[in-house]
Amino acid sequence: MMLWPRTIVTSLAVAVPTAAIITVGVEWLRGQDRALALERVVRSQLNDAVRERCEADPNWFLTGPLEGRPRRGEPVIDPNNPDALPPRPKVTEQPFELFAFDEQFRGSSSAAPRFPNDFRRGLQQQSAAVFGSFDEGGRGAQMAVATGWIGSPCMYFLGRMRVAPGQTATRVKMFAGLFALVFAGAWLAQAHLAARARRLSSDVRAAIKEGYASVAPDKLKDELSQVTFMYNDTATELHQRKTRIDDQDEALRRYVLSSVSEVAPPLARVERDLGELSKAVTGEAARSRVHRALTTAHYAASRLENLGVAARLRMSGPLGRDKVDLRAVLERVADRDLPLAIAAGVTMTLSAPSQPVWVEADEPLIERAIGNLVENAIIYNTAGGHVGMTLQPDAARGFSLKITDTGRSVSDEELKGLTAVRRFRGDESQNRRENAPGLGIALAREVTDRFGMLLELRRPAASGFEAEITKRV
User: Fold this and answer.
1) Which residues, listed in sequence order, are joined to residue 170 by a DSSP beta bridge?
2) Chain-centroid distance, C-alpha 396
3) Which of the two residues, 239 and 38, has the higher pLDDT score?
4) Where is pLDDT greater, at 249 or 371?
5) Mean local confidence (pLDDT), 247-275
């Protein structure tokens, strides 16, 4: 989970229980305050004036509603049923009420509630006062106290204090306010860390793009700040290693290119001379030896040129793009590979339009890619076989260049291995597995991909092999 969603989840996990605990705590304190206030009111009634008034007219509320009081002379209880309660006067219940009870715990007022049994047991056990609650949920506080007025109808007082109306809405508002406050505080505390971590991540990504540059350390001295120092130390070491590797790679690339430029021309001259010599020699044995030498020289020159192309493709900078005439490229490839075809006993044909077919590419690279495909068609052909090069303009894809041969067909496994080659690794020349794709196919696909072309390898229905290069749509 990302940091920002996690801050919200964590803030919720902190805010909900915290707000609930505080709300319950506040309600408990309010209950204690109500009980304390109730005790003060009840005990304030324990005086001679209240006793006189209560004993003179016990059939009304000592404290509470004035309206709906029972009239004097009305029976307080049913003599046949001491537990029977007369109906309560139809008046609004007051926040505080005080009722008198005689020594049998019978109410002196027709509005008096039933005396709680646990309060009765508590007072009978010589307790001075008993506290408890009433109403559903225990929100109201009540207290019973012995007045000490023996034989009086006001021997016990039962006081009740109700909760003010609208407390549910008040609790909801208090919980919502506490939740919002705690959530905001928890989120802000985490958001600050998340913002710092996000900023550090962005700085590190930018520094990596710049070649493992240093990151400005965080101003706060904490664990997150230490990450910047650790990264800077690591980045310095990585930068030094990268510099050494780049220097070695550049030196190797220059060495390969230099070797190609110095060795390739003499090999090309040797190949041409051997091609001319093969025309002049007589005798099958001598001609065979010349052909083998020509093939070896061509193989060495081709491998060297491929190494040069691989070195160029490893360059970090962009490759050059010029307008290249594919027809001229094919003519040069056919002219250069003709001695190899003669030595292999293979005929070559070139079919191309009279007008140029232009593409944007690097001319040496695209020529080497096409040359690799043509050389494979010659090398893996059979004596008396044929290699065809067909270039045609294509309205949908710009052009179509097909290179076909009449050699042996490839198996499903071989075709799968050839079509799976997408990028050269650099070690293809060291691969000695049977029928494994070499550097030529890998470079051809790499070059065509770099310049927006598509290389497709197919196995015709009859026999042979086909490679087609088209402009990628």
Assistant:
1) none
2) 41
3) 38
4) 371
5) 72
The gap between the terminal CA atoms of the chain, to the nearest Å, is: 39
3-state secondary structure the chain: CCHHHHHHHHHHHHHHHHHHHHHHHHHHHHHHHHHHHHHHHHHHCCCHHHHHHHHHCCCCCCECCCCCCCCCCCCCCECCECCCCCCCCCCCCCCEEEEEECCCCCECCCCCCCCCHHHHHHHHCCCCEEEEEECCCCCEEEEEEECCCCCCCCCEEEEEECCCCCHHHHHHHHHHHHHHHHHHHHHHHHHHHHHHHHHHHHHHHHHHHCCCCCCCCCCCCCHHHHHHHHHHHHHHHHHHHHHHHHHHHHHHHHHHHHHHHHHHHHHHHHHHHHHHHHHHCCCHHHHHHHHHHHHHHHHHHHHHHHHHHHHHHCCCCCCCCEEEEHHHHHHHHHHHHHHHHHHHCCEEEEECCCCCCEEEECHHHHHHHHHHHHHHHHHCCCCCCEEEEEEEEECCCEEEEEEEECCCCCCHHHHHHHHCCCCCCCCHHHCCCCCCCCHHHHHHHHHHHHCCEEEEEECCCCCCEEEEEEECC
Question: In angstroms, rounded to a whole number, what is the distance separating the alpha carbons of residues 386 and 347?
Answer: 5
Global model pTM greater than 0.70:
no
Distance (Å, whole) CA 431 – CA 357: 36
Distance CA 251, CA 421 (A): 28
pLDDT digits 0-9 by tens, 39-91: 888 888 888 888 888 888 776 667 665 444 554 444 545 556 655 555 555 54
Q: Which residues contact 421 (CB under 8 A, 6 or more apart)?
A: 437, 441, 442, 445
Give residue 35's pLDDT.
82
Tallying the residues shown for the chain, one arrives at 473
Strand 398-405 relative to strand 386-394, pairing: antiparallel
d(CA 146, CA 158): 9
Range 116-120, long-range pairs (CB < 8 A, 24+ positions): 116/142, 116/144, 119/144, 119/158
- Is domain 320-473 given the CATH code 3.30.565.10 in the classification? yes
Domain-wise residue ranges, the chain: 3-71+88-169, 210-317, 320-473
Percent of the chain with pLDDT over 90: 16
Q: Residue 386 pLDDT more than 70?
A: yes
- Say if residues 336 and 371 touch (Cβ distance below 8 Å): yes
Q: Which residue has the tokens 């081709």?
A: 302
Token pair of 233 as six digits: 């130390």
Give 374's pLDDT tier (boundaries 50, 70, 90). Answer: very high
